[in-house]
Amino acid sequence: MKFTAQQIATKLEGTVEGDPEVEIFQLSKIEEAQQGSLTFLSNPKYTQFIYKTQASVTIVDEDFVAEEDLSTTLVRVQNAYDSFSVLLDYYNKVKTSKSGIAESAIIDSSVQLGKNCFVGHLSCIEEDSNIGDDVKIFPQVYIGANVTIGTGTIVFAGAKILDDTVIGKNCVIHSGVVIGSDGFGFVPRKNGTYKKIPQTGIVVLGDYVDVGSNSTIDRATLGVTAVGNGVKLDNQIQIAHNVEIGENTVIAAQTGVAGSTKIGKNCVIGGQVGFGGHITIGDNVKIQGQSGVTSNIEDNSKIQGTPAFSYNAYNKSYVYFKNLPNLVKDLNRIIKKLNL
Questions:
Q1: Where is average pLDDT lowest: 97-101, 140-144, 160-164, 177-181?
Q2: Does residue 278 have an active-site annotation?
Q3: Cis preceding linkage at 139, omega within 30
């Protein structure tokens, strides 16, 4: 896929300074760009690279003044950073704007498939599923029976969406994700073995939810595992059965949420956080990475540590944690001096 400098300028409502017909076919960082690349300059500390870059086209602010000769064609815009973001979004949409059904795809005759959908090679959609308009299902995706996927959602290669799952509009499900697998439910027996508890509930994702690669969201034991509108999940996250996550909450990689925990709206949760089961996290809570959360957390809290407690108290305590060996030496000197 190629674009000329003039096509880019037209898209961004900018102007070309240099060769308007020069072509680009990839996006690159300014310090690494080669011929055929498009890059941008926004942060002044990277200005030095614009005189060395091999990029064919560079997006700059309107008021940029070159102090040395340039080999790159410039596209001048009001805000280079915002304009490059627009291009990134456009580039992603172009990459995923596919339609049609691959010959090797297997789609049950009872499936309702919307308009302008794409189903890639070796993907499978089981009976009674309902796929909305403009849904893109990439190769080797498995979609179970009675699944609902809303308009504009993208399911990348290798994802597994199991029976009865409901996914909203404009979601992004990345490769390796598993949604709707059994929750971890077992009852210990007197003889030391465990009896499995059937997991008969479902998973419901709202609109504009992103689920990162190799994350898992388990079906409820009974009822629903619910992920609200606008939730963003990073890679390798475990969401257990009957968990509820409020809208616009963001969770970083390798976090695990145990069963029946409720997380509020607009929370920001760092990587490798562990949540105990059956607890409630309020709205607007911020949790630092590698924290262990074992009890209810009030709205607007900011916490850190294992078990997690007040962020400010943790930082104050950490001063003493680091100095503990010296404090113990001082204490021993005092005890010895007092002959205690």
A1: 97-101
A2: no
A3: no
- End-to-end CA gap in the chain: 81
Cβ atoms of 203 and 179 within 8 Å: the answer is: yes
Q: What is the C-alpha to C-alpha distance for residues 138 and 123, in angstroms, rounded to an integer?
A: 7
Instruction: Note the pLDDT of residue 324.
Output: 87
d(Cα 24, Cα 43) in Å, to the nearest integer? 22
Q: Which tokens hold the place of 47?
A: 């200005």
Name residue 256's beta-bridge partners: 238, 274
pLDDT tens for 241-266 read 999 999 999 999 999 999 999 999 99
Look-up: residue for tokens 């979601």? Answer: 171
> What does the chain come to in residues?
340
Of the CATH numbers 3.40.50.150, 2.60.120.620, 3.40.50.2300, 3.40.1390.10, which one belongs to the domain with range 3-96?
Answer: 3.40.1390.10
pTM above 0.70, yes or no: yes
CB 182 within 8 A of CB 197: no
Beta strand 37-40 with 57-61 is parallel
The sign of the CA dihedral 103, 109, 111, 116 is: positive
Rounded Cα gap, residues 101 and 116, in angstroms: 10
Is 2.160.10.10 the CATH number for 100-311? Answer: yes
Q: What is the pLDDT of residue 307?
A: 82
Contact criterion met (CB below 8 Å) for 90 and 69: no
Distance CA 141, CA 148 (A): 15
Question: Which residue spans of the chain are classified as CATH 2.160.10.10?
Answer: 100-311
Annotated catalytic residue within 121, 174, 241, 278:
241
Q: What are 110-167's pLDDT values in tens digits?
A: 999 999 999 999 999 999 999 999 999 999 999 999 999 999 999 999 999 999 999 9
Contact between 80 and 17 under an 8 Å Cβ cutoff? The reply is no
Q: In which residue ranges of the chain is CATH 3.40.1390.10 found?
A: 3-96
| Separation between Cα atoms, residue 44 and residue 276, nearest integer Å | 45
